[in-house]
Amino acid sequence: MVFSLERRKQDINVLKEETLDVLIIGGGITGAGSALQASASGLKTGLVEMQDFAEGTSSRSTKLVHGGLRYLKNFDVEVVADTVQERAVVQGIAPHIPKADPMILPVYDEPDSTFSMFSLKVAMDLYDQLAGVTGTDFANYTLTKEEVLEREPQLNSEGLLGAGVYLDYRNNDARLVIENIKRAAEDGGHMVSRMKVVGILHDDNGRASGAEVEDLLTGETIRINARVVMNTTGPWSDTIRQMDDKIDTAPQMRPTKGVHLVVDNKKLFVPQPTYFDTGKQDGRMVFVIPREEKTYFGTTDTDYKGDLSNPTVEQEDVDYLLDIINTRYPSADITLNDIESSWAGLRPLIAANGGSDYNGQNNQLITDESLDDVLSIVEKYQQGSVERYEVADVLKNIKTANAESDTNPSTLSRGSSLEIDEDGLITVAGGKITDYRKMALGAVKATIDVLERDFNLTYELIDSAHYPVSGGDIDPAKVDEETEALAQSGVEKGLTESEARYLANLYGSNTPAVYDLLEEVDQVEGLTLADTLSLHYAMREEMALTPSDFLIRRTNHMLFMRDTLDSIIEPVISEMARYNDWSDEVRQQYTEELEKAVAESDLKTLKGDVD
User: Fold this and answer.
1) Are the beta carbons of 415 and 198 closer than 8 angstroms?
2) 29 in Cβ contact with 86 (< 8 Å)
3) Which of 421, 416, 418 is nearest to 433 (CA)?
4) Which residues of 442-456 are buried (b: 16+ CB within 10 A; e: fewer)?
5) How far apart are alpha carbons 461 and 145 in whole angstroms?
6) pTM
7) Which segments constitute the Alpha-glycerophosphate oxidase C-terminal domain (predicted)?
8) Most buried of 54, 73, 408, 517 (most Cβ within 10 A)?
9) Which domains are delineated in the chain?
């Protein structure tokens, strides 16, 4: 299969000329998963994304396929059962991406701690049963204070009671998106990035029947006709619905910003992912995760009202995280200048899904004080000085004994919603990466129902729980063995062991196709052989259109290989310019785009290191 700039031109021609069964707006994980299921089920499928695939939100997560252990504090068994079971499905269909990486959870003797040692053990035992790992090598266990400190000597010993260790999975979020996109394209889907929706089309009956879109590479505007239009734009869900002049809907999204910071592991060393209370009694927990030769930590959870396409790390985000990390790891003494890279992303939370979903709800009588709060907030809303969700917070606080659990964005449910508006526009929103396949399943099932009911078209939904993404044709029970075999094949072809393992872990069962490029690609001066192959594969088979696409989302070079980034930027740009025959103007545009992304990741403005 070829999934390249040339394929993009072919797909755009199809989108111009044919009527799709479904047009999916949004190329994050939910849109990508929906496109895979629709294409594999035989639907004539198109997907448009105004940025690069995964650029908006799905490359900016904590990079885990998380099991949700903390929800067992309140015995939310159903929530955790669904999460760990779906996590196992994702590991089965994309075995080269989520990798088992047991998590350590230290417990401190502090007010409002999420767990005591006793409650943690009870929760972990139940978690193991739900995950089906009881009695296996991945079964949980506890550590004494001394054992915790032996494993993580930088961890603060004051008040430390011990820890639990339980199964979790690390993830490569952007890779999971592109592998879904590639499989959808392989199955006949027309997947186009940098294509911005500017209007929703309607037929003579007022039904949503496609979209008007602008090609951000050429400036051309085209009309795409489709029987069903699906909105999977995450934080932009309200934007698309408000663009639809045939419906009148209240905003439902409440995006929150999450920030992660990366330091060298010589500065902060953790042998495995670590997860603990912030110690601030704010209901939040923080991850500290080793990756490559780096350690990253996060996340924050703060309401966000800025530019959805460009959330940034601010000083207060850094201050918050460094305070927590330096309290938990006092000898690390991390400062702003130790931060090598960073990222900020938005969570597509739904405002109506309050903390009561996971944290319980206690009704109470309305007090005079509560009534005053309601009258005041409504007046402010009418004056336009507060947002709708802030009114909702006050109303929820009337009903709950624990106001903090409802107003703190970090406790909002990550629940999803599927809405079909009166003109037929389908919007699937909310959720989290672990649940993406189930969200997509519901959206595509709704699409197929509409096609049968209104267009007399019948499709059989594939069993997506057993349908591998691109690169996923690996036995989930033998991932390590098959990955090592792929790596050894690369060594035999002249790659070093580290290069071959890097490629095998990145591309899974597509690794032989990467190796095949050895026959036609010369090593680029300034790049390793592995990076040369990876770059060409990204351009030819993964729709990497810009240097940022390659260095940020097809690989994690900018985030976790910052040491070598500066030395490969020029060779990457030069090779992409040569291969794609860029003009000087285009080359300069993409160079400046990358420079801006690197500067933001480096926190140059906060460090005062600006030109």
Assistant:
1) no
2) no
3) 416
4) bbbebbbebbeeeee
5) 51
6) 0.91
7) 465-585
8) 54
9) 5-58+174-249+421-466 (3.50.50.60), 356-411 (no CATH), 477-607 (1.10.8.870)
> What mean pLDDT is predicted for residues 261-287?
95
Secondary structure of residue 297 in the 3-state scheme: strand
285-321 burial, b at 16+ Cβ within 10 Å, e below that, comes to: bbbbbbbbebbbbbbbbbbbeeebeebbbbeebbebb
| Dist CA 152 CA 288 (whole Å) | 12
Residue type, 236: W
If you ran DSSP here, which 8-state letter would residue 523 be given?
P
Which tokens belong to 459? 């499709």
Q: What angle do CA 48, 49, 55 make, to 5 degrees?
A: 155
Looking at every residue in the chain, the average pLDDT score rounds to 91
Q: Does the pLDDT value for residue 501 go beyond 80?
A: yes
Q: For residue range 173-185, what is the model confidence (pLDDT) as tens digits?
A: 999 999 999 999 9
Question: With the C-alpha atoms ordered 19, 220, 420, 245, is the resulting torsion angle positive or negative?
Answer: negative
pLDDT at 120 over 60: yes
What CA–CA distance (Å, rounded) separates 108 from 281? 12
Q: How far apart are CA 474 and CA 98, in angstroms?
A: 13
pLDDT at 353 over 80: no
User: What is the rounded average pLDDT of the residues 193-214?
Assistant: 98
Q: Which DSSP string do the residues of 444-471 spell out, in sequence order?
A: HHHHHHHHHHHH----PPP-GGG-PPTT
Location of structure tokens 């995450």: 234
Place of tokens 């109303």: 395
User: Which residue, among 515, 6, 419, 424, has the nearest Cα to 227 in the 3D structure?
Assistant: 424
| Residue pair 212/223 in contact by the 8 Å Cβ criterion | yes
